[in-house]
Write a structure and sequence with these properties.
Chain lengths: 216, 226, 225
């Protein structure tokens, strides 16, 4: 199922280019507005990066169920002998991959634009990115299924997801800032733990709730 | 408790969409190997009943049983059902073969590639296996839908207006195929409008009116109704 | 039938009177009983209202999540009426919290808004309430609407502790347990109790209104059929 979604996206090239493009444009806009001395820029680069990832990533989250709604594919999916949990995990995986692809473009781009050592310590940044992706995708996949049942899916989704992921965006932004400042002390770990807790709580809760989101 | 004789049992099923009562305490038994046709005017609840029988919608009250087992919460038993729906349920960006292989994988079929190819042959689309659904005609997509529904060899087949949009040749071909499936002892449930087709395919005709089953006609009465 | 109607009528009027009495008592206590605070003057009196609605805004969220869970468990729209009433009253209280808090902050800190943990949490709560309202407005089928509202409420409830944790790790300036004169404490208590009862009243009224509206629509649908 994961391979089906990825293959389908590769064929149609519908969402990912738009998502990456939006990410790049937003990044450029932020960089233009935030033309600050490095000392101040360092304070806000994490927040800008993660907000950009969130808004561009919403496009992919939204598509994960909107695409199934076309031609009744969604019903077809439900009629297979697989549990909603499997469907959820497959969609989650695709969304995590989509966000990772986005980050592969955005993190180097931010590093170039802001001239900050974002990639000096790739390990910690990758950990933060993976946990952040998992958290955003966990909540986003569930709420995308919720939003797609209404009539106003695409503009409703960011409205629903953003308040929910505020702790996550905050945590990821802070962890990124500390990583840029080479500070991997207890406060860095605390934020990483928060990201981990967020991911675990919402993957678990979403698995439990997904069944209710998909029934007719 | 399984019961091999009753393929589908509908027990006092009620379904509302919002305030509208779509199915009103429907009771129905379909014997294994039987072929039934649901008729009725638009909005009578035919498609909803068929979808309820496929366990795609959760009734507000009542139960659906397949071979004597309740369907709610049972994902595994879904492999008993194959369905040709109104919409074709095909992914527009995958080729026909990929669509079928995906369906086969989802149903845990042993040799998905092989199975997809043999079904493409059955429905006469082997030559078009590498094209995508949007470039095909409506009739070809309908054939592929049927192949998709048959991929896991289900004992029960639900078909929602399978003849819609087909030309005369395709119609003839499809009714031949459906007759074959009937001969194989599969349980078939149709939603149909066409009287001649109904006469050809039905052991029993059920008429839905405003969410109620009004008329249950046996084989003898089929000819009369039609 | 007419007897129940009379009972309803009487109860409603009794409760309306109690509610009005509560608000009057609270306002009287705030403006007549409470002493004038030395540095902030009259603006300090906002605190009594602010604390009351803030507590109510949070309590309503918890109530909404619990009744949502009950709905998913029982599939009875009566639980959804509770959940929806809690959503609307909670949104109202949360909006009032932000407004009164902002007014107070302007007087006390000379700024309308800061990113203090509690302010941030209140804002996130308000955003979740608002999103849930918008979501509900877009779904027509009552059961589906109830399901989707319930999912958002439960996810939101799980989110609140994380929001509080995350925002706390930035240092805050919100007064935690400020020094208060005994009279002030009494007034605060009166205010919290009275406003809690008042908003609970509103919530109960809204719930029974939703319930009655639902029954009425059922009857209408039956009459048409």
């Amino acid at each position: 199922m994961v391979s089906k979604d990825l293959l389908s996206e590769c064929r149609s090239l519908r969402v990912w280019p738009a998502m990456l493009l939006l990410g790049v444009v937003v990044a450029m806009m932020f960089a233009m507005q935030a033309d600050l001395p490095p000392q101040q820029l360092r304070q806000i680069v994490g927040g800008l990066l993660w907000l950009t990832i969130f808004f561009a990533g919403t496009l992919a989250l939204d598509r994960s169920f909107a695409a199934e709604r076309e031609d009744g594919c969604w019903e077809g999916l439900l009629s297979y002998p697989v549990s909603p949990t499997c469907v959820y995990l497959a969609k989650l995986t695709v969304n995590v991959v989509a966000l990772a692809a986005l980050e592969c473009v955005l993190i180097p781009l931010f590093a170039i634009l802001t001239d900050l050592p974002l990639l000096a310590h790739p390990g910690p940044i990758i950990i933060v990115a993976i946990l952040g992706n998992l958290g955003i995708a966990a909540v986003g996949t569930l709420l995308s299924a919720v939003a797609s049942t209404g009539k106003q899916s695409s503009y409703l989704l960011p409205l629903l997801v953003l308040p929910m992921v505020i702790p996550l965006v905050l945590g990821a932004a802070e962890a990124t800032r500390l990583a840029v400042e080479h500070d991997f002390g207890p406060s860095w770990w605390r934020w990483v733990e928060l990201l981990g807790a967020f991911a675990i709580i919402f993957v678990t809760a979403s698995i439990a709730l997904f069944e209710f989101a998909v029934e007719e | 408790m399984t019961d091999p004789r009753i393929a589908i049992e509908v027990r006092r099923v009620t379904k509302r969409f919002g305030r509208r009562l779509v199915l009103d305490e429907i009771d129905l038994e379909v014997a294994a190997g039987e072929s039934i046709v649901l008729t009725g005017s638009n909005g009578a609840g035919k498609t909803t009943l068929l979808r309820a029988m496929a366990a795609l919608i959760r009734p507000n009250s009542g139960d659906i049983l397949w071979f004597g087992e309740k369907t709610s919460g049972q994902h595994e038993s879904r492999r008993l059902i194959g369905m040709v729906a109104h919409e074709n349920r095909l992914y527009p960006h995958l080729t026909l073969r990929e669509n079928l292989v995906f369906a086969a994988r989802m149903c845990d079929v042993v040799h998905p590639q092989h199975c997809a190819d043999s079904l493409l042959e059955t429905v006469g689309l082997l030559a078009h296996g590498d094209r995508t659904p949007p470039v095909l005609s409506k009739g070809m997509r309908q054939r592929l839908s049927l192949a998709r529904a048959l991929i896991h060899d289900p004992p029960i087949l639900l078909l929602d207006e399978p003849f819609e949009g087909l030309d005369a040749d395709a119609e003839q071909w499809l009714s031949g195929l459906l007759q074959d499936l009937r001969q194989q002892g599969r349980t078939l449930c149709f939603v149909l409008h066409d009287e001649a087709k109904t006469r050809l395919l039905a052991d029993r005709v059920l008429h839905l009116h405003q969410g109620r089953l009004l008329q249950v006609a046996g084989q003898a009465a089929v000819a009369h109704v039609a | 039938m007419s007897q129940t109607a009379e009972k309803h009528f009487f109860n409603d009027y009794l409760w309306h009177a109690v509610a009005a009495g509560m608000v009057t008592t609270a306002i009287a206590a705030i403006f007549l009983l409470a002493p004038m605070e030395e540095t902030m003057g009259i603006a300090q009196r906002i605190v009594y209202l602010h604390v009351s609605v803030a507590w109510m805004g949070l309590a309503a969220f918890v109530l909404m999540a619990i009744t949502s869970g009950m709905y998913l468990f029982r599939r009875d729209l009566a639980w959804d009426h509770w959940s929806r009433a809690a959503l609307e009253i909670g949104w109202l209280c949360c909006s009032l919290t932000l407004a009164t808090g902002s007014l107070w902050a302007h007087a006390a800190w000379n700024t309308w808004w800061t990113w203090d943990p509690r302010l941030t949490t209140a804002f996130v709560l308000w955003a979740m309430y608002s999103a849930a309202l918008v979501l509900r407005s877009g779904v027509e089928d009552p059961h589906r609407r109830a399901r989707m509202g319930a999912i958002v409420a439960i996810v939101g409830m799980l989110d609140v502790p994380l929001v509080i944790m995350a925002t706390r790790w930035f240092r805050g300036i919100h007064p935690k347990s400020p020094h208060m004169e005994p009279t002030m404490r009494v007034v605060l208590l009166i205010s919290v109790v009275c406003f809690t009862l008042f908003f609970t009243m509103l919530l109960l009224l809204r719930r029974s209104q939703l319930h009655i509206a639902d029954m009425l629509e059922d009857l209408q649908a039956q009459a048409e059929a």
